[in-house]
Design the sequence.
């Protein structure tokens, strides 16, 4: 029995033998999805000691809900703690009363009326992208969706045009994500202090992103005009008579700029890949867009009617969830059945596992947007599907992400058939679930 657990606890949950700790640590670095699947094979509650770290994997919707809503028992996990190096005390990384204050200040930017207004920028950029494409030119969809969603977030939330800087920002973000791929390792704090090339690349990338974000803040301050965007709201925000410092605004802007485009870009890339493999679904989506929108681009008011398009996006995020793993650190003992999770242990919850669980999604590897018909959803536990997390840390921009994803799919499908190269693309499970390389696609104009 592990010495960290009280003597009153009869046993640990099932899991690999303790002597497997170093092997598990290597697997965590090389194949984290494989490690999750190995732990899941021991049951819906599994225990492992990965290096020096006690880890519990829970794969029951009711337990996942308990962890995510128990903010008095759990804090964020190791990866988010390490993310402070880039994101500072933004919504993803802050805790307690400060987190609640920041969320209160940011939340109005994502109210329904605001998101409805942002939808015009979404359609404008998606249409601009569609018009630019050439049928004889093969494109890397992963790169293109990243550039497109970055332009959308910059325009919608910061009223700025940063398309000319998209490649620089994308390269900087890739360098940073390479660094954070190691963030879950127990020795990551030590690696941060070593003069390794990876660390130097991270510092250069962070400086490049800071230049972009601080320039946006400076331009907004200099104009003195409320542009109706999120950055204007942050600059004007007051809570208990106190505004936000430039550093606090920088942290929130950086968080929303990066998280707001990276996750949606991945969701769109994987969804286009799945649609290409299922042409009948792609044609059904295009037919819905023609029926709802006619010969015109989709409008914000069309979003509630694009029900099949939304189901396609939901199914894409089921099979390839952009956020594929959540971790929480226990701050006090947590009872779960006959087991006790001790303080300091990490509790893992994986969208990758839950979204492919045959108990809730029969024939789970099959792409089937009709899983999201109301009658099919009604019989499913809430936390069998949680692409945006849950509890008090649920993604603040969830409604924006759904609106963006639906409108981008509709705008592009209206003009183009997207045929992704059938050569399998590997998975790169870092902070998000990225393709491991280019996703080449051919575009054919629709009649």
Sequence:
């Amino acid at each position: 029995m592990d010495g960290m657990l009280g003597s009153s606890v009869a046993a640990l949950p099932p899991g690999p033998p303790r002597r497997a700790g170093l092997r598990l640590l290597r697997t965590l670095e090389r194949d984290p999805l494989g490690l999750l699947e190995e732990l899941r094979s021991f049951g819906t509650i599994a225990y492992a000691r990965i290096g020096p770290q006690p880890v519990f994997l829970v794969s029951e919707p009711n337990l996942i809900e308990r962890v995510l809503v128990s903010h008095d028992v759990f804090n964020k996990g190791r990866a988010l703690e390490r993310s402070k190096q880039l994101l500072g005390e933004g919504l993803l990384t802050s805790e307690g009363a400060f987190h609640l204050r920041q969320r209160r200040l940011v939340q109005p930017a994502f109210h329904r009326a605001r998101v409805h207004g942002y939808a015009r920028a979404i359609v404008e950029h998606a249409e601009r992208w569609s018009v630019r494409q050439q049928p004889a030119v093969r494109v890397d969809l992963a790169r293109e969706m990243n550039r497109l969603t970055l332009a959308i977030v910059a325009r919608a939330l910061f009223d700025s045009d940063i398309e000319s800087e998209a490649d620089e920002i994308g390269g900087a973000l890739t360098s940073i994500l390479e660094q954070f791929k190691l963030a879950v390792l127990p020795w990551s704090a030590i690696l941060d202090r070593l003069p390794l090339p990876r660390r130097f690349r991270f510092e250069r990338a962070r400086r490049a992103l800071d230049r972009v974000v601080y320039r946006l803040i400076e331009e907004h301050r200099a104009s003195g005009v409320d542009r109706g965007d999120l950055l204007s709201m942050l600059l004007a925000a007051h809570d208990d008579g106190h505004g936000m410092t430039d550093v606090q605004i920088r942290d929130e802007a950086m968080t929303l700029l990066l998280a707001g485009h990276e996750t949606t870009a991945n969701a769109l890339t994987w969804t286009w890949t799945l649609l290409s493999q299922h042409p009948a679904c792609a044609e059904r989506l295009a037919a819905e867009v023609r029926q709802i929108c006619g010969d015109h681009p989709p409008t914000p008011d069309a979003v509630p009617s694009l029900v099949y398009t939304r189901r396609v996006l939901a199914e894409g995020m089921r099979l390839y969830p952009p956020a594929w793993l959540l971790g929480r650190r226990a701050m006090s003992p947590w009872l779960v059945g006959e087991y006790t999770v001790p303080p300091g242990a990490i509790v893992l919850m994986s969208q990758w596992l839950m979204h492919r669980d045959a108990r809730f999604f029969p024939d789970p590897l099959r792409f089937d947007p009709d899983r999201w018909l109301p009658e099919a959803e009604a019989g499913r536990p809430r936390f069998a599907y949680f692409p945006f997390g849950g509890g008090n840390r649920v993604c603040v921009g969830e409604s924006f992400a759904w609106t963006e994803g639906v409108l981008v799919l509709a705008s592009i499908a209206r003009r183009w058939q997207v045929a992704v190269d059938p050569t399998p693309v590997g998975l790169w499970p870092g902070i998000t679930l990225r393709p491991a390389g280019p996703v080449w696609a051919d575009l054919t104009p629709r009649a």
